[in-house]
Protein backbone atom coordinates (compact mmCIF):
# COMPACT_ATOMS: atom_id res chain seq x y z
CA UNK A 1 0.00 0.00 0.00
CA UNK A 2 1.42 3.39 -0.96
CA UNK A 3 1.96 5.96 1.72
CA UNK A 4 0.26 9.23 1.04
CA UNK A 5 1.81 12.54 1.94
CA UNK A 6 0.00 14.45 4.59
CA UNK A 7 -1.19 17.85 3.78
CA UNK A 8 1.59 20.17 4.87
CA UNK A 9 -0.71 23.02 5.77
CA UNK A 10 -2.48 20.88 8.29
CA UNK A 11 0.69 19.85 10.13
CA UNK A 12 2.33 23.27 10.17
CA UNK A 13 2.15 25.03 13.48
CA UNK A 14 0.74 28.48 12.84
CA UNK A 15 2.87 29.90 15.66
CA UNK A 16 6.06 29.07 13.73
CA UNK A 17 5.14 31.75 11.24
CA UNK A 18 5.70 34.45 13.85
CA UNK A 19 8.77 36.42 12.75
CA UNK A 20 11.96 35.60 14.62
CA UNK A 21 12.91 38.33 17.02
CA UNK A 22 16.42 38.35 18.43
CA UNK A 23 15.42 40.56 21.31
CA UNK A 24 13.42 37.76 22.88
CA UNK A 25 16.43 35.49 23.31
CA UNK A 26 17.90 35.39 26.77
CA UNK A 27 21.48 34.33 26.08
CA UNK A 28 22.67 33.56 29.57
CA UNK A 29 20.46 33.95 32.63
CA UNK A 30 22.23 35.64 35.49
CA UNK A 31 22.38 34.09 38.91
CA UNK A 32 20.14 35.73 41.47
CA UNK A 33 22.46 37.11 44.09
CA UNK A 34 21.50 38.95 47.25
CA UNK A 35 24.05 40.08 49.80
CA UNK A 36 24.18 42.87 52.31
CA UNK A 37 26.96 45.38 51.83
CA UNK A 38 27.98 48.25 54.05
CA UNK A 39 28.62 51.73 52.84
CA UNK A 40 32.10 52.99 53.72
CA UNK A 41 33.29 56.55 54.19
CA UNK A 42 32.51 58.87 51.31
CA UNK A 43 29.64 56.61 50.22
CA UNK A 44 31.77 53.81 48.76
CA UNK A 45 30.08 50.44 48.28
CA UNK A 46 31.83 47.24 47.23
CA UNK A 47 30.15 45.13 44.57
CA UNK A 48 30.51 41.51 45.80
CA UNK A 49 33.23 39.48 44.06
CA UNK A 50 30.76 36.87 42.80
CA UNK A 51 28.93 39.55 40.80
CA UNK A 52 32.17 41.16 39.60
CA UNK A 53 33.41 37.80 38.38
CA UNK A 54 30.17 36.79 36.70
CA UNK A 55 29.84 40.06 34.82
CA UNK A 56 33.57 40.61 34.29
CA UNK A 57 33.47 43.95 36.08
CA UNK A 58 36.81 45.63 36.43
CA UNK A 59 38.41 48.72 37.89
CA UNK A 60 37.48 51.91 36.02
CA UNK A 61 34.22 50.47 34.67
CA UNK A 62 31.58 53.20 34.53
CA UNK A 63 28.09 52.83 36.07
CA UNK A 64 24.89 54.79 35.90
CA UNK A 65 23.22 55.12 39.29
CA UNK A 66 19.44 55.46 39.11
CA UNK A 67 17.27 56.34 42.05
CA UNK A 68 13.88 54.99 40.97
CA UNK A 69 10.48 56.41 41.86
CA UNK A 70 9.94 53.30 43.96
CA UNK A 71 13.00 54.17 46.06
CA UNK A 72 15.32 51.50 44.69
CA UNK A 73 18.87 52.37 43.76
CA UNK A 74 19.91 50.62 40.55
CA UNK A 75 23.46 50.40 39.25
CA UNK A 76 23.70 49.86 35.50
CA UNK A 77 26.99 49.16 33.76
CA UNK A 78 27.48 51.98 31.30
CA UNK A 79 30.90 51.24 29.93
CA UNK A 80 33.09 48.23 30.60
CA UNK A 81 36.78 48.82 30.06
CA UNK A 82 38.01 46.41 27.42
CA UNK A 83 40.69 43.92 28.42
CA UNK A 84 44.11 44.91 26.98
CA UNK A 85 44.46 41.39 25.53
CA UNK A 86 41.24 41.92 23.54
CA UNK A 87 42.66 45.17 22.21
CA UNK A 88 45.87 43.39 21.15
CA UNK A 89 43.96 40.64 19.37
CA UNK A 90 41.70 43.18 17.66
CA UNK A 91 44.73 45.14 16.49
CA UNK A 92 46.49 41.97 15.25
CA UNK A 93 43.42 40.91 13.27
CA UNK A 94 43.00 44.32 11.65
CA UNK A 95 46.45 44.69 10.16
CA UNK A 96 48.34 42.72 7.52
CA UNK A 97 50.04 39.49 8.57
CA UNK A 98 53.78 39.04 8.45
CA UNK A 99 55.66 35.87 7.57
CA UNK A 100 56.96 34.93 11.02
CA UNK A 101 59.23 32.11 9.91
CA UNK A 102 61.00 34.28 7.35
CA UNK A 103 61.43 37.12 9.87
CA UNK A 104 62.64 34.69 12.54
CA UNK A 105 65.28 33.16 10.24
CA UNK A 106 66.59 36.67 9.58
CA UNK A 107 66.79 37.32 13.32
CA UNK A 108 68.69 34.08 13.93
CA UNK A 109 71.22 35.09 11.26
CA UNK A 110 71.60 38.53 12.85
CA UNK A 111 72.08 37.02 16.31
CA UNK A 112 74.77 34.65 15.02
CA UNK A 113 76.48 37.45 13.13
CA UNK A 114 76.64 39.61 16.26
CA UNK A 115 77.93 36.68 18.30
CA UNK A 116 80.96 36.11 16.04
CA UNK B 1 51.78 28.55 33.72
CA UNK B 2 54.43 31.22 33.32
CA UNK B 3 56.00 31.66 29.89
CA UNK B 4 58.90 33.80 28.74
CA UNK B 5 58.49 35.11 25.21
CA UNK B 6 61.37 35.37 22.79
CA UNK B 7 61.00 37.58 19.69
CA UNK B 8 59.78 34.46 17.88
CA UNK B 9 56.52 34.58 19.86
CA UNK B 10 55.96 38.27 19.03
CA UNK B 11 56.46 37.51 15.34
CA UNK B 12 54.04 34.59 15.61
CA UNK B 13 51.42 36.94 17.06
CA UNK B 14 51.84 39.34 14.15
CA UNK B 15 51.38 36.35 11.84
CA UNK B 16 48.07 35.71 13.65
CA UNK B 17 49.21 32.23 14.54
CA UNK B 18 46.30 30.42 16.21
CA UNK B 19 48.36 28.86 19.01
CA UNK B 20 50.09 32.11 19.83
CA UNK B 21 46.80 33.98 20.00
CA UNK B 22 45.27 31.19 22.10
CA UNK B 23 48.13 31.46 24.57
CA UNK B 24 47.69 35.23 24.68
CA UNK B 25 43.97 34.82 25.31
CA UNK B 26 44.69 32.50 28.23
CA UNK B 27 46.45 35.35 30.00
CA UNK B 28 43.13 37.21 30.06
CA UNK B 29 41.70 34.81 32.61
CA UNK B 30 44.94 34.50 34.57
CA UNK B 31 45.36 30.89 33.42
CA UNK B 32 48.75 31.75 31.96
CA UNK B 33 51.19 34.60 32.38
CA UNK B 34 53.75 35.80 29.88
CA UNK B 35 56.91 37.75 30.55
CA UNK B 36 58.58 39.71 27.78
CA UNK B 37 62.20 40.79 28.24
CA UNK B 38 62.79 44.39 27.16
CA UNK B 39 65.40 43.26 24.61
CA UNK B 40 62.62 41.31 22.88
CA UNK B 41 60.72 44.59 22.66
CA UNK B 42 63.76 46.17 20.93
CA UNK B 43 64.47 43.30 18.55
CA UNK B 44 60.79 42.76 17.83
CA UNK B 45 60.19 46.44 17.05
CA UNK B 46 63.17 46.51 14.67
CA UNK B 47 62.05 43.41 12.78
CA UNK B 48 58.40 44.46 12.62
CA UNK B 49 59.40 47.85 11.22
CA UNK B 50 61.55 46.07 8.63
CA UNK B 51 58.49 44.01 7.72
CA UNK B 52 56.49 47.22 7.15
CA UNK B 53 54.40 47.00 10.30
CA UNK B 54 53.54 50.57 11.27
CA UNK B 55 55.05 52.17 14.35
CA UNK B 56 51.50 52.98 15.43
CA UNK B 57 50.53 49.28 15.56
CA UNK B 58 53.73 48.34 17.38
CA UNK B 59 53.17 51.12 19.92
CA UNK B 60 49.58 49.99 20.45
CA UNK B 61 50.75 46.41 20.96
CA UNK B 62 53.30 47.26 23.63
CA UNK B 63 51.01 49.86 25.22
CA UNK B 64 48.37 47.16 25.75
CA UNK B 65 51.04 44.71 26.91
CA UNK B 66 51.98 47.21 29.63
CA UNK B 67 48.32 47.69 30.54
CA UNK B 68 47.75 43.96 30.90
CA UNK B 69 48.07 42.44 34.34
CA UNK B 70 49.25 39.05 33.14
CA UNK B 71 51.77 40.09 30.51
CA UNK B 72 54.82 41.56 32.13
CA UNK B 73 57.52 43.56 30.42
CA UNK B 74 60.80 42.85 32.24
CA UNK B 75 63.27 45.71 32.45
CA UNK B 76 67.00 44.98 32.67
CA UNK B 77 68.69 45.34 36.03
CA UNK B 78 72.34 45.22 37.02
CA UNK B 79 71.87 41.67 38.28
CA UNK B 80 70.29 40.63 34.99
CA UNK B 81 73.07 42.25 32.98
CA UNK B 82 75.80 40.53 35.02
CA UNK B 83 74.13 37.13 34.93
CA UNK B 84 73.57 37.52 31.17
CA UNK B 85 77.29 38.03 30.66
CA UNK B 86 78.03 34.88 32.67
CA UNK B 87 75.47 32.76 30.82
CA UNK B 88 76.67 34.09 27.47
CA UNK B 89 80.23 33.08 28.32
CA UNK B 90 79.38 29.75 29.92
CA UNK B 91 77.13 28.48 27.15
CA UNK B 92 78.58 30.41 24.21
CA UNK B 93 75.31 32.19 23.55
CA UNK B 94 74.80 35.51 21.79
CA UNK B 95 74.06 38.43 24.12
CA UNK B 96 70.48 38.50 22.82
CA UNK B 97 69.92 34.77 23.49
CA UNK B 98 71.60 35.05 26.87
CA UNK B 99 69.49 38.07 27.84
CA UNK B 100 66.24 36.26 27.06
CA UNK B 101 67.32 33.04 28.77
CA UNK B 102 68.63 34.85 31.86
CA UNK B 103 65.40 36.83 32.17
CA UNK B 104 63.47 33.56 32.14
CA UNK B 105 65.78 31.95 34.71
CA UNK B 106 65.78 34.92 37.10
CA UNK B 107 62.00 35.26 36.89
CA UNK B 108 61.62 31.53 37.70
CA UNK B 109 59.92 31.03 34.38
CA UNK B 110 60.03 27.36 33.38
CA UNK B 111 59.11 27.68 29.70
CA UNK B 112 60.74 29.76 27.01
CA UNK B 113 58.69 30.34 23.87
CA UNK B 114 61.26 30.21 21.11
CA UNK B 115 62.46 28.12 18.22
CA UNK B 116 66.14 28.96 18.57
CA UNK B 117 68.32 25.83 18.55
CA UNK B 118 71.00 27.70 20.50
CA UNK B 119 68.91 27.24 23.63
CA UNK B 120 69.30 23.46 23.36
CA UNK B 121 72.28 23.49 25.68
CA UNK B 122 70.20 25.16 28.41
CA UNK B 123 67.46 22.63 27.74
CA UNK B 124 69.93 19.76 28.16
CA UNK B 125 71.24 21.22 31.41
CA UNK B 126 67.59 21.49 32.53
CA UNK B 127 67.75 25.22 33.13
CA UNK B 128 64.74 25.79 30.89
CA UNK B 129 62.13 24.08 28.75
CA UNK B 130 61.89 25.52 25.28
CA UNK B 131 58.53 25.40 23.52
CA UNK B 132 57.74 26.05 19.87
CA UNK B 133 55.33 24.74 17.27
Description:
The complex is a heterodimer of chains A (116) and B (133). By secondary structure, chain A is an alpha+beta fold. Chain A has 4 helices and 2 strands, in the order ααββαα. Chain A has a two-stranded antiparallel ribbon with strand order 1-2. In chain A, strand 1 (62-67) and strand 2 form a beta hairpin. Residues 8-12 and 20-26 of chain A have low confidence and may be disordered. Chain B has 133 residues and is of the alpha/beta class. Chain B contains 7 helices and 5 strands. In chain B, helix 1 (7-14) crosses helix 3 (38-50) and helix 5 (78-91) packs across helix 6. Classes of the chains: A alpha+beta (116), B alpha/beta (133).
In terms of topology, how is this protein built?
The complex is a heterodimer of chains A (116) and B (133).
Chain A: H1 8-11, H2 49-55, E1 62-67, E2 73-79, H3 84-94, H4 100-115
Antiparallel strand pairs in A: 1-2
Chain B: E1 2-5, H1 7-14, H2 18-28, E2 33-37, H3 38-50, H4 55-67, E3 71-74, H5 78-91, H6 95-106, E4 111-113, H7 120-124, E5 129-131
Parallel strand pairs in B: 1-2, 1-4, 2-3, 4-5
Strand count, sense and closure of the main sheet of chain A? 2 strands, antiparallel
Please report the number of helical segments of chain A.
Answer: 4
Mean of residue pLDDT values of chain B: 93
Derived structural class of chain A: alpha+beta
What sort of overall outline of chain A do the alpha carbons produce when their principal axes are compared?
elongated
User: Given the helix and strand composition of chain B, which structural class is it?
Assistant: alpha/beta
What's the gyration radius of chain A in Å? 28 Å
Number of strands of chain A: 2
Shape by Cα distribution of chain B: globular
Alpha-carbon distance between the termini of chain A? Answer: 90 Å
Contiguous runs where pLDDT drops below 50 for at least 5 residues of chain A? 8-12, 20-26
Calculate the terminal CA-CA distance of chain B, rounded to whole Å.
17 Å
Number of strands of chain B: 5
Tell me roughly what share of residues is in helical segments of chain B. Answer: 55-70%
